[in-house]
Amino acid sequence: MKKGVSVLDDGCRFSVWAPHADEVYVVGSFNEWNPEAHPMAKSGDGIWSVVIPEAKPGDEYRYRILTAGKEYSRTDPYARRLTHSSGNVIIPKSIPGRKPGRFQPAPLNELVLYEMHIGTFGKKGREPGPGDLEGAIERLDHLHELGVNAIEIMPVAEFPGAYSWGYNPSHIFAIESDYGSPRAFRDFVRKAHDLGIAVIVDVVYNHLGPSDLDVWQFDGWSENDGGGIYFYNDGRANTPWGNTRPDYGRPEVREYIRDNALMWIRDYGVDGLRWDATAYIRNVNGGDGDPGDLPDGWSLMQWVNEELKKARPSAINIAEDLQNNPRLTKSPGDDGAGFDAQWDARFVHPMRTALIGADDAHRDMNAIRDAILQRYYLNAFERVIYTESHDEVANGKARVPEEVDPGQASSWAARKKSTLGAAMVFTAPGVPMLFQGQEFLEDDWFHDQDPLDWSKKERFAGIFRLYADLIALRRNRDGRTRGLCGQAVSVYHINHEDKVLAFHRWDEGGPGDSVVIAANFSTQPKHQYQIGFPAAGDWRVRFNSDSRFYDGEFGDTGPEMVPAEEIEQDGLPARGSFDLGPYSVLILSQEEA
């Protein structure tokens, strides 16, 4: 039986799992909160249910549970909407699910992600409170202009209070009340799709709460003073965020998580999920291991990912595991967890180290090379690569421009190094991701009460153009850089003294496909610098991060065209020379014949 509240033609059906309860009642605005007006009947599987003709959408309710002489007032674990995180459940209007196939996200090799936090991205004016879905909808045209084709939204499930990153969910089925209604989230997804932008939602299944958590000791039962029916009641419950790890071995809890994952896909039409901290689903302490000391967590991830693919084959499922385990992105048939991609710690950490360090001599070109070449399994696009994310720009860390030049995040060095990092993100193999505001040099560190400074989009309009151009090249919008969507990569030139690196990206190779990227990780410009090329002929510069088109203080060092002659260099059949600006990147390709 479907759990939660279902709107019928003649009222509403209420169903709740409470196996240890002696009595359960529905109390609400439809019965003037009478504690005994609507008793529920119990089935053999611990499900209590009742149909109430008087109940209708918009009414509020709670469950009254009696167990062993004690009484508990609980919200519905499947609640879709609440007055607030510790308030009453609101019966939602019945909204039909989105039809599968109406919108198809880009394939992984063409995907460009934009990580967003509704409370700071959607903030309008000076009104009190966080930003909301309505404000975020108004800003989606900005993302369309930027050129991204997927949004990864930090959690929007109901959490305590008005401000949060969202990784402390109290009610995983409900839309955060300060962000708006379920219909508002549906409108957000629809507007994104209308603009050609997929929506991926962060979900938190490694722990719940820990505050405003009505599923804690839900029906009064627990062991070892643990969380009761929804949680482990022993040491397996322990996480860095509280002793609230769900019991992945209990069928009803597995179903609860599965149902939640499917809700986002079926009812809201989102295009995928990003699972938070999956290492803590498969391991008590978040370490590595196959499948670790929580095998039920591993099998849960396998099962839910398979169920999501059945419901929508194009669904994109991403793990934030950060343990560099290739089995996360293997199929369940190969004993993997079944994710399509995972966040790549082996890219972000060495790349940020290379960008942030003040002394050029200490930049490790081998570490940069390894970050470019890293892959988990056979597919180069099984990893999400980035220099900024919500974790990398908080908790004692800041955005790249701020880390480069603290207190002067708009300095020349901060602009040059941060855009150098962006160019690496969009040219290395992997699914590139930006963090909100990165495209207009947002500074400082991220926190949930600091909205984006949208005036910077105009102030740093050139930087915005730089990101838009990189995204267009990465997506091969003009048909001249197909190699950036290809599997193949070769880092064929490394100069440890001059801090220059060059690599080749290609799909099938040849004009319009093969792409050469040259990157200078030093403050010294290079003149008539020579590297190998995959073929002789003219190689046109498609992007130069040192161009004054992007910033009037940049040096404009570099050519429009590089002729490559048939002389072997760096193990390639041709060579060419060019000028290369400080902390700059050139992206080159040949014209189609």
Characterization of this structure:
- The model has no long low-confidence stretch (mean pLDDT 96).
- It is built from 13 helices and 26 strands.
- It starts with a strand and ends with a strand.
- A hairpin with a 4-residue loop joins β19 and β20 (500-506).
- It folds into 3 domains: 4-74, Immunoglobulins (Immunoglobulin-like, Sandwich); 108-213 and 257-474, TIM Barrel, CATH 3.20.20.80; 482-589, Golgi alpha-mannosidase II (Immunoglobulin-like, Sandwich), CATH 2.60.40.1180.
- It is an alpha/beta fold and 593 residues long.
- The longest helix is centred in the middle third of the chain and has 17 residues, at 295-311.
- The protein has helices spanning 118-121, 133-138, 140-146, 182-194, 251-266, 279-282, 295-311, 345-356, 365-373, 400-404, 412-427, 455-459, 461-474, and strands spanning 4-8, 11-17, 23-28, 41-42, 47-52, 60-67, 70-74, 89-90, 113-116, 150-153, 157-158, 171-175, 198-203, 272-275, 316-319, 341-343, 383-385, 431-435, 488-495, 500-506, 515-520, 526-533, 537-544, 561-564, 574-580, 585-589.
- The strands form 6 sheets. An 8-stranded parallel beta barrel has the order 9-10-13-14-15-16-17-18, surrounded by 4 helices.
- α5 packs parallel to α7 (295-311) and α11 (412-427) runs parallel beside α13 (461-474).
